[in-house]
């Protein structure tokens, strides 16, 4: 802040004009900075999108190398997701209620069909302990 005190009207007008010019210059610099921030944000969004795509390509390539084939239908995708959850359950497996909670969107009939198909294919086993049914991955 300028501490000068004008003695005449013309000096006050000159000081006001000088201050207005400084304010306008600061406003222009602020606009430039805001534009840079927007551009930086756009670059960050594009970079994040590219990273996600690259990770997807790597994951797909990994699946290809490991011999797993990408699921083509919704049923196959859902079945593979259920199988991955059961596999992550380890030796103890996954309780039926956990599967129900994790896959509520599938509905009871579809969940039962997927579990039955996985057991018939020998990829998943089932055991009961008390009132709890558990599903485990068969290697």
What does this structure look like?
- The chain is mainly alpha-helical and 139 residues long.
- The mean pLDDT is 86.
- Helices cover 67% and strands 10% of the residues.
- The chain has a 3-stranded antiparallel beta sheet.
- It contains 4 helices and 3 strands.
Major sheet: order of its strands? 1-3-2
The H-and-E topology, N to C, reads as HHEHHEE
The backbone outline, from C-alpha atoms, is: rod-shaped
Radius of gyration: 32 Å
Strand content: 5-15%
Q: Outline the biggest β-sheet.
A: 3 strands, antiparallel
Summarize the structure.
The protein is mainly alpha-helical and 139 residues long. The protein contains 4 helices and 3 strands. The chain has a 3-stranded antiparallel beta sheet with strand order 1-3-2.
Keywords:
rod-shaped; 139 residues; 10% strand; three-stranded antiparallel sheet; 3 strands; single chain; mainly alpha
Q: What is this structure's SSE topology?
A:
Layout: H1 9-66, H2 74-88, E1 94-95, H3 96-102, H4 108-120, E2 124-129, E3 132-137
Antiparallel strand pairs: 1-3, 2-3
């Amino acid at each position: 802040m300028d501490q000068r005190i004008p003695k005449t009207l013309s000096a006050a007008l000159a000081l006001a004009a000088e201050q207005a010019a400084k304010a306008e210059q600061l406003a222009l610099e602020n606009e430039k900075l805001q534009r840079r921030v927007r551009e930086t944000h756009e670059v960050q969004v594009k970079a994040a999108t590219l990273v996600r795509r690259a990770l997807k390509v790597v994951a797909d390539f990994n699946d290809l190398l490991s011999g797993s084939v990408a699921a083509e239908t919704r049923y196959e995708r859902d079945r593979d997701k259920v199988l991955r959850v059961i596999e992550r359950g380890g030796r103890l497996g996954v309780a039926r209620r956990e599967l129900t909670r994790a896959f509520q969107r599938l509905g009871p009939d579809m969940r039962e069909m997927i579990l039955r198909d996985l057991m018939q294919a020998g990829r998943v086993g089932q055991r009961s302990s008390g009132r709890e049914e558990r599903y485990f991955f068969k290697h």
